[in-house]
Amino acid sequence: MTSTKLNIVVAVCTNMGIGIEGRLPWRLKQDMAFFKQLTVETQDEQKKNMVIMGKKTWMSIPTKFRPLQDRVNVVLSTQLTEPPSGALLASSLKEAVNLAKSDANVENVFVIGGASVYREAVEGDCPCRIYLTRVDKEFECDTFFPKFDTDVFKRIQNPNNVPTGINVEGDLSFTFEVYEKNLFPH
């Protein structure tokens, strides 16, 4: 992998909440299907994408779904001494990105949570794209996506693989938005 572009995938409610007590506060099948498609599909079928997550995010995934199939899973932790079964272990986001750079079979890198990993990715100096699902309702949350500067992260037209318009599932409406941090300062 030659690029270190990070792709952040997150769903937020109106107060930028992303979780409560280690779980998602909502269940949106369309969003989960989009997440899987986005993080699994590659241009080169010989390659895989890497998903990077903190230890709490890893633990929040039901055991039967760990590791996330057809992706290289990397768990960030400074406390674990052995990698979780089916995953790689890194002590920092930078170390995880270096794992991706050194693996010729990794096509894209996705940051999938939690809050501190998102913050490090948003505030870091790597080129970055945010795939944000905006749920149009406020939920009680104890974990939040960090505020990001919309002068730095510009909303872009949704790429081909990203649904457009307002989506409705049950009593929830949501939209998919894409933001990109300029790769190079002007």
From TrEMBL:
Class in the EC hierarchy, top level: oxidoreductase
Catalytic activity: (6S)-5,6,7,8-tetrahydrofolate + NADP(+) = 7,8-dihydrofolate + NADPH + H(+)
This protein's pathway: Cofactor biosynthesis; tetrahydrofolate biosynthesis; 5,6,7,8-tetrahydrofolate from 7,8-dihydrofolate: step 1/1
Superkingdom, taxonomy of origin: Eukaryota
EC number(s) per entry: 1.5.1.3
CDD domains: DHFR
Matching Pfam families: DHFR_1 (PF00186)
Keywords of this entry: NADP, One-carbon metabolism, Oxidoreductase
Domain DHFR: 5-181
Family that this chain belongs to: Belongs to the dihydrofolate reductase family.
The protein, known as: dihydrofolate reductase
Classification of source organism: Eukaryota, Metazoa, Spiralia, Lophotrochozoa, Mollusca
Name of the encoding gene: LOC101864024
